[in-house]
Structures are given as C-alpha cells and as structure tokens.
Fold this sequence. Notes:
One of its GO terms (molecular function) is protein-disulfide reductase activity. About 70% of the residues lie in helices and about 5% in strands.
Amino acid sequence: MNPNQNNKTHKDMKRLILLPLLLFALLCKAQGEQGITFFKGSFNEALAEAKKQNKPLFVDFYATWCVPCKRMAKEVFTLPEVGEYFNSRFISLQIDAEKPENKEIAKQYKVEAYPTVAFIAPDGKTIGVNVGALGKEDLLEAAKIVAGEGVSFEQLYEAYKKNPNDLEVQQQMLMKAPNFLAAQEGMEADKWVVRIQKLYKGYIAAKKGPKLINKDDYAIIYNLEGNDDKAHKQEMVDFINQNLDAWKAAIGAPAAYYVVMSNDAWAEELVKEGSDKYKQYVEKIKNEYAKAYEVAALPTLPAYERAKLYYDALYNLYKNKDVKGYIRDMKTLLQKMGDKVAPADYGKAAQDLYNAAGKKLTADDHKQAIEWVEQALKAEEAVMERVNYLVMIGDSYRELKNYAKARECYNQGYAESLRMQNMEMPQAMVQNAIKHKLATLELLEK
Length: 446
C-alpha cells in the first residue's frame, strides 16, 4: 500500500472517530444551555412520567395575556443553570391555566393568580406553591427546598422556636415569608400573618441600627411593612431617612423613593379625607425629608413647591368642592413644571377632577378635563393608559351631549385595545366596558 494512502486512511479513520465525539460534545453543550426542558403532553401524562421516574413534577401555570409569565419563560426558564438543575431533578410542565381542559387542574392546585409555579409529588399532592414572578435565585431556592437541598420556611420556623434570638434564622424566615403566605388559605393564612408580623416587628427592633442597613433587610421591610400600623411604618420611614446616605450606598435610589412614596401616600390620603393635617407631611418635604425628595425634584420646580401647589389644590377640591380654584391652581402647577410635565401629570389632573367632583362638573370643567387628557395622549405610549384616556375624553363629550365625538373617542379606545396583545382577560374587560358605553350612547341619542 502506498504510504501516503496509508496515512490518508488513518486520518480518515481518526476523523470518523472524532466526528461522533465532537457531535456528542456539541449536543451535550447544547442540552446544558437550553434551560428547562418541558414535558410535551397533558398534566396526567406528565404526572405518570413523574411516577415512572420517581421525581417531583414542576408545573408553570400561566395565562397567555400574562406579561410576567412571558418574562419568566423567556428570561428565567431558559437559563443554563436553571435547566441543569431542573432537568435532572424534576419532570417540568407548562400549563395554560385558562384553557377549558386545564381549569379543573388549576382549581385543584388553587391557582388564582399568574404566574403560579407548583411543585407536586408523584402521587399528585402539593409540595409547594409560589405565586408571582420569580427570578433565578428565588426559583432555584424553591426547587432546592423541594429536592431536600434547601431549608423550607417550616424548617426555619422550627429552628426559630428552638432559638428565638437567632437573627440569621429570623432573616431567612422573613425573606421566605411572602411566598409562604401566598400559599396559605383561610384561618391558616390569618394565623401566619399575625405570627409573621409579630416576628417582623421583633426582628426590626433587635436589628435597628447599622446592622439593618443592607439589601436583604430592605427587601424584608419593603415586602412586610404594611399600612395597618401607621406608627410603625412612620418609624421605618424616618429610620431610612435619617440614615439615607448609608441606605443609598447599600441599595441605591430605592431608599429615597421609599421615603417619598410613603410620605406622598399619607399626604394624599389625608387630603381626600378633607383633613388639613396633610400640611404636616408637605412641610417635611422642605425640612427633614428634603434630601430624599431630591430624587423627585425638577430643574424648573423645587419638590416642596411642587407638592404644596398640588396638595393645596387637591385639598381645595375635596374639602371645599372648589372646582374653579382647583383648575386655576393646577394650571399654575403644570405651567411651572414646564417641559418636564409627564403624560401622567396631565392625566392625573383630569382624573382627580372626575373623582372628586363627578356629576357636578360644568361644561367648561369638562372642556378643561378634555384639554388635559388630550395633552396626556400626545406623549403617552402605554396602551392601557391610552385606552383609559380615550374613554375619559369620551365620557366628557357624553356629558357635553356631543355624542358623535363621544362615539369617536370610544371607538378609538376600542381600536387601541386591539393592540393589547397577550392580555386576553384585561382586553376583554376593557372592550366589554367600551361596548357598554357605546350602547348607552345609542339610548341617549334616541
């Protein structure tokens, strides 16, 4: 045999041996990078496969209109590390919970919001349920608990009872508390809410100081600090505000926004009750909360002046029913905001007018509301807001007895609603409401 031919034969054989190995390596690499491999078949078929392989079943209950569901499917389930963990330990299934054939299954596992992810034993019993969108870490943590590689809320609670002063155990419990509570029902849920709130307040009291200023504890405060105990929440807002530099170093601007949003909510609540105590919260904006409100400041208008103009105008509207005064003051505020006025500012100016005065609005008042909402429409891009604004304008034209313009606005709103892709339930609700308004117009025109 020719030596060159012999060398060629060896090279060909080597290539034939290496090619399958290369293809196998590429296949393994691709499988490791594909994220979760979801079972193709029905729930009962997936459960049967889970029994066969003696693995828990992981079910993603979603709805086609649910944006967070789509985000999880695209950004979390596709991650290689998530796929690597789930594919070796679970049979995974995605279920459109609103399809007729899946409604009973969703009901059986108490799916009431989307997304809901459930871990189910091979015998069909629930192991754990998580409501709401989960990031990579939260999803993996939930899976590890089911797989016996993590610590569950109940296990942490048992550890807490043995050592009630262990703040690390308390922190882990409180971080898991929102998902744990979401899976509880009835009296059991009420019992745990009381326990967790008591635990939360004790934990905050024990750590209140530099040790509390960190990302994990902020998440606990944000998720568990409710509005039921206003005095306690005020203490937390003041604590964050008094240590704002340290909080901003730990978590950034959200610390300042927490102070701003809480203070604004209290001021607006008092305004709508007709209480002049709202002024105490407005004054805080230029005093103790001045630094926090820098995140909401405009180049054209200091935060304090902006808030004072707004809340004074709103108070005059709710307390005195002074529509003319409100319109005058809001015009002043919007003018001073200059080119920094957002669509939502115009929309809220009109919405407050409708909410506070309603049927008492005059023709001129409705014309002003229309003008504001039309300004909002010019720059608003969110479909839901655009539909809402068009319906608001239509309502004003209906009150003005300009039924042709009202119909035009309602029809435009309906046309905009067609853009609400993958939001079937909200879309249906909006469209039904608009159809009802159009039907009412027909009766008014007769």
